[in-house]
Amino acid sequence: MKKNLFIFSCLIGQMLQAQNLSPIQAVNFSQVKINDAFWKPKMEKVATATLNACILQTEIKTPRIRNFEKVARKQGEKHEGIYYDDSDVYKALEAIAYSLKNNPTPKLEATADDWIDKIAAAQEPDGYLNTYYSLLGLDQRWSDMEKHEDYCAGHLFEAAVAYYNTTGKRKLLDVAIRFANHIDETFRLANRPWVSGHQEIELALVKLYRTTGQDRYLKLADWFLLQRGRGFGRGVIWDQWKDPAYCQDSHPVKEQKEITGHAVRAMYLYTGAADVAVQTGDAGYMGAMKTVWEDVVQRNMYVTGGIGSSGRNEGFSQDYDLPNEQAYCETCASVGMVFWNQRMNALTGESKYIDILERSLYNGALDGLSLEGDRFFYGNPLASNGSHARREWFGTACCPSNIARLVASVGDYIYAQTDQALWVNLFVGSETKLNLGGQEVNIRMQTAYPLNGKVGIKIDPGKATNFLVHLRIPSWVSNAAFAGDLYTARSVAPNKLQVMVNGQIVAYKSEKGYAVLERTWQPGDEISFTLPMQVQKISARQEVSASQNKVAIQRGPLVYCVEGVDNGGDAWNFILPETAKFSEKNSTVGTEAVVALQTQALFYEPGADGKSIKTVLKPLTAVPYYVWCNRGNKGMQVWLPQKIKGLRFVE
Amino acid sequence: MKKNLFIFSCLIGQMLQAQNLSPIQAVNFSQVKINDAFWKPKMEKVATATLNACILQTEIKTPRIRNFEKVARKQGEKHEGIYYDDSDVYKALEAIAYSLKNNPTPKLEATADDWIDKIAAAQEPDGYLNTYYSLLGLDQRWSDMEKHEDYCAGHLFEAAVAYYNTTGKRKLLDVAIRFANHIDETFRLANRPWVSGHQEIELALVKLYRTTGQDRYLKLADWFLLQRGRGFGRGVIWDQWKDPAYCQDSHPVKEQKEITGHAVRAMYLYTGAADVAVQTGDAGYMGAMKTVWEDVVQRNMYVTGGIGSSGRNEGFSQDYDLPNEQAYCETCASVGMVFWNQRMNALTGESKYIDILERSLYNGALDGLSLEGDRFFYGNPLASNGSHARREWFGTACCPSNIARLVASVGDYIYAQTDQALWVNLFVGSETKLNLGGQEVNIRMQTAYPLNGKVGIKIDPGKATNFLVHLRIPSWVSNAAFAGDLYTARSVAPNKLQVMVNGQIVAYKSEKGYAVLERTWQPGDEISFTLPMQVQKISARQEVSASQNKVAIQRGPLVYCVEGVDNGGDAWNFILPETAKFSEKNSTVGTEAVVALQTQALFYEPGADGKSIKTVLKPLTAVPYYVWCNRGNKGMQVWLPQKIKGLRFVE
Question: Looking at CB atoms within 10 Å, which of A606, B53, B219, B607 has the fewest?
């Protein structure tokens, strides 16, 4: 087996070379110790509040775990909840696994082991595992492509891999292997058509392949990708499915040119396709995905990195249709954007994918989790009249565990490497130890980012060693326009980043959005640079009608918003003068340290007579978007109006 | 059987007397010919556009009819659509049946016969009929109280009764009888607990009882009512169900005191309870319902007669929680209000129930249907920022066929009678022939209501005959306050209605909200009166926070609204002066004749500099609420602000 795997790996290496696909490997979070002022407290909140909420809901408040117990009891009891609820158990397990790595907690691990026993006891003798169909009647299984059996399987595989990697315990991994084998035999080996109604299994199978070395899982992932766009998906019960574009099933994946349909399904699909592409070297997926990616980012993405503007289909609508108050922007879709863009970066070595990853992570995804870690957004609009509120849980509960697993594994996105080169993608206080240039190298990044832009990176090889260091130069440093030219920062001139080694300015090559330093690194070398954190006023292309005559404010990676709570109660009754300049003020939202931004704006308020309107020039305060709605619901806007276009009287 | 029925009827008569329940009978629409300028064109639109839309959706665009064909084919095909879709077929059939009475159309009848053949062919040998479970597997049937099997059965029974009454064809009636017998044997006779997850079967069984004379259906209706509130409904899969109040299952029906939960379920429940009460004379239901009715009307009803303010549960929330833009107010709930209030009126003889019926019918229900009859509202808010639009159809398609059947059977609500008395409840140009005082009496009402308030009623007995005529005096004529004192018209003093017979003013007794004329009627006698159609400014109790500092405008039975399309594009940027007086203007919306109302209001508009706000006194036009959103989506408000409380800048 080992030998086979080796041969296969060599083959992949050749194919990658042939296809010019980059073999960059993301450094796994389990190799990265995070001691960052911004992320570490959030990971601790996830380890406590968020996971406790997931556990409470999974064990007590909803029947998610009880369904597994019912299957094991075999007493003819009925399934409770929704047919995809198993997936929430798996995603919570996956988040627990990540969290245990950074925050070991025996009680959490005991809970996970207990759940795993119950999951294993619910597996059918032939490997099948799905409480909905085991309780409904196994004769019904695999009869409806939309019923998320493969989706739940995918989340099981991800949890199993994560738990095995963290703890070394393989009980859940063995469950996953048996189920994956069952699926492989039922479909690929039996040549039985099956279009996954909710993609997810593809990326999960690649993880299973990487962990077990069994190439049948990689083949099965590719097989699932190849099923799409061939008309196999007709005749299932869900109305929306009848438009195959809803599930990215209107064309074969390698022929897709436009983003369509359900945003989370799309993100998981392309993540899986990228994973397969990097393993097999198949350039067909990559060609299609580059085009689709441009369609997402250049015409269908919010300035927060949020995607899927329409609640109707939880997904994409028309190009440039980016309403702010009605923005759907599911938390899970931003999580998916992080996944996909990481893979696109690894395949191409281009920093533009990390630019989008960072935008989605720090804005559209992170705001899905409350600062205390115990409240969630399902949708993440860019304006609220005060009615949008965080909630404890959802009937369809995909988002809480998804944001939990993302934050718990944020270490996945900081570094990447080849044998001869390091990539620094995100600026997060952290330590890792990598083999570079044949030498073990300690790497230690220190930064208060995103509060300020100072970054120091100690590069400590045991002895002098030559390798490349790629430092990502965020697009907001070097370019006025981003996301194509969907958004443009008009207030600040582009900068050239100054990089120092051991306090001396050094020359570097700019390549694919990175500052590339090639040198023989000595023990104790330190790279330092300061990302310019000027406040940027961003305008949107004129096609984005919802955001015309408005500006969005960004500082570093953080998009800002104006909340009513900081501005006398209302967030929709002011005009920002064109000449407005923002000053920075160190502040807090709850216990979260933030740089608040202040300027003067024209506020319009009812007069005492109930008929007149007063206009007052007074301070306007903006805070990072990710902290909004942590101090009650009082209205919020990301895009700040510079002109009165229409007005309404409201309560 | 006939004899038994006769004895039973006598018994009911005695019980009614004993319990002081009124034996008033609504005159069935099939006995009423409508030639009304307001309603007749709407009934014709239903007969053509609305029913064609229902047929198109049922036969072509959705698999509703195909599911019946699949059951009959017995080839193991799968159910498509949602498990309650059969009910839409039955409701469309019921609407066709009503429509055929007033607008005979051979093609429509042929379609109905074709559907009935397919429905009959899908009935199981034991009488069971439900395509979802016949296709899923009959072993699963009756396992889940929430899966609407009894709800679909109820709509089948209603359709069967309607089609039999219109056409005399009993094929569908026989299908209904077999299914009802199956249900009776499965539950009541087997003493097997079952709480209907969506009430409807109760009222339908009373219709079946009245048509067949079989008292087992009345007993079964009562049995279903008695199941509720006893804890039988636990353990079904739907989360919301876990609050038994969602389905009015927290207390036995006769002990209920508050309105809770899903609005349509509640309306159907109380309609069925009233139907059973009138047949059995059981005063327990009536006592509870009077209390619940007051809770609905006095604390939880919109000025449009709409109910169920919350979209979260499609139902009731807190007392006085009546938001305008977020108002859910499902069309079906207003239809249910019409049903229930008719029964309450028949049980008590009190006109206050018809006041509410009229309010719901002419406003909250009727606006659910577009003027062309081919577009629908599911929810009916009282304010829109322009995003609320009529749609061709819905995934859950209860509303289109429900409003169709209501409009097609509006003749049901005009007259009621006992042997010795006539009640005129609605003012609709129409003819009927009734037996009153032992004499056949032709009745012919002529009116242009609600355009104006003149009503003439020819009372034509073959020979001089003594009987009572009750003319409803709408509460908006005689009282400033209505719905308890939830709403108060402050601008117009109450009137005493002047009634004439043959041109001479006559004295009358006021009783239970009616003007009661007792006399010996001569052939050719004519009653005439003019309802005062002054424009009324209505304010809401201070507990209704969403409508403070605002007035609603009403003229006759019609609530008005301000639409952007009549007012320069926006409907939320004006202040109505306290002193504003409205003038009437004959106008049209499409081809619909309306009395538009005009006054002067302060409009606030952006200045050319984009920073200033101009205030302009200019004409404000209001149109009846039921015609809104027939000229595009441009914003609408029912409650007109008299003070600026807050303002927002919008697109």
Answer: B607
